[in-house]
Amino acid sequence: MEGHSRLNEADDRTAARVAALIEAFAGSGETVAVAESLTGGLVCSTLVDPAGASRVVLGGVVAYSTDVKASVLGVDAGLLAARGAVDPAVAMHMATRVRALFGSTIGVATTGVAGPDAQDGIEVGTVFVAVVSDRFETTEECHFTGTRDEIRRATVGAAIALLENSLRTE
Questions:
Q1: How far apart, in whole angstroms, are the C-alpha atoms of residue 63 and residue 74?
Q2: Do the beta carbons of residue 40 and residue 153 sit within 8 Å?
Q3: How many CB atoms lie within 10 A of CB 81?
Q4: Is 41:35 a contact under the CB 8 Å cutoff?
Q5: Using 50, 70 and 90 to split pLDDT, how confident is the model at 136?
Q6: Domain ranges of the chain
Q7: pLDDT, tens digit, 9 for 90 and up, residues 62-105
């Protein structure tokens, strides 16, 4: 039960961080749209947990397949063919395109390999998270270890941290 208690504490800390993030974005008039691959909706779900999230979160797209990244989000098919879906430029395109699609001030995107097997020669745990706005644009490469679920949850944490960092650029 001790391990379960630590997980609850970690979830409580994340919930408090996300609630503060939503309040900060609401106070500055920011809106967020999310494009997700390996996280399958977990980033958007985490962002909408706090009350009042509808003032900030406009929506999201789960683009799990490469074809959906191109057909729905409008990520350049040539880029996807040349580099594959797990690439920093693809993450940035996803964030830029979801921002345009929803008309939000901030776009955030995740793409990577949660496992259990490598994808196109890219190791399990390799993840790219991108955040783009008028004043902030970054892509972070992460290398996580653990189960699929642990990698996906760590990716959510990385996305939240990048969104928090975007606040510090004002």
A1: 11
A2: no
A3: 10
A4: no
A5: very high
A6: 2-167
A7: 999 999 999 999 999 999 999 999 999 999 999 999 999 999 99
Residue 112 makes CB contacts below 8 A (sequence gap 6+) with 37, 38, 86, 125, 126, 127, 128, 142, 151, 155
Q: Residues 31, 56: contact at Cβ < 8 Å?
A: yes
Top CATH class of 2-167 equals alpha beta
Query: What one-character DSSP code corresponds to residue 76?
Result: -
| Chain segment 142-167, per-residue pLDDT in tens | 999 999 999 999 999 999 999 999 98
Determine how many CB atoms are found less than 10 A away from the CB of residue 170.
9
Q: What are the E-state strand segments in the chain?
A: 32-36, 57-62, 106-112, 126-132, 137-143
Whole-number Å distance between alpha carbons of 52 and 86: 33
Beta carbons within 8 Å of 12's beta carbon, 6+ residues apart: none
d(CA 51, CA 110): 24
Taking alpha carbons only, the member of 59, 27, 54, 29 closest to residue 44 is: 59
